[in-house]
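Supplementary notes for students who missed Thursday's class. We covered one full example, reproduced here. Read the sequence, then the structure, then the short commentary at the end.
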Amino acid sequence: MCAKCGTGTMNRRTLMAGGLVLACAGVVPAGRRARAARPSTPDEALQKLIAGNARYVANTPVNTDHSKERFSRAAGQQPFAAVVACSDSRVVPELIFDQAPGDLFVVRVAGNFINEDGLASLEFGAAVLGVQAIVVLGHSGCGAVDATIKSVKERELPPGHLPSLVDAIRPAVYDVMAENPPDLLAAAIDRNAVLNARKSETSEPVLAGMHASGALVSVAANYDIATGEVSFL
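Structure (token representation):
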């Protein structure tokens, strides 16, 4: 399914072989264990997330018993979607999309951007575990994006390891600053999610190959903490 990478071949079979090693840590490749009502296409996976968020907003969740299927989950995982989320403590993907443990493969970092480690995680989630949709989820009032805006305006980097975070988010800030939006923070949050969803979609060889074949879709979204609603961008 995937193209060659460098002098070696990086394909689904290669990643599956790697998955067998990780199975020793309790990870089981996709197809090893069936889950009820698992989406059969990327579009169905997105619709399942949309329906789950609607239940969350309406305060009518169906995934409230987290002990249910605990024993079967110990045999392995088969998530249907991945969420690249901010580390913000108010952003909890399983609650936001009303999904059970084992349904979502979550990659978290302040500012919900995708670095090399994030790409590797998403490749494993998609090619080995069978994830069909990747959602890069920004959120209202993101502190990481706000800090990046401040750093850009003041032309001063924050202390410690924070400059690496600023460097990752800065492209989105520069993009929207050139457009002079009425709400710079909100615009930068959305653009950051969009740019990283695009990065997921075009990352060679694994993710881009799966997108090209129709096995995977990547989208950007914004979570409103006050209302609980997720808007797809």
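Commentary. The CA atoms of residues 67 and 101 lie 9 Å apart. Residues 1-10, 19-35 have pLDDT under 50 and may be disordered. If anything here is unclear, bring it to office hours.
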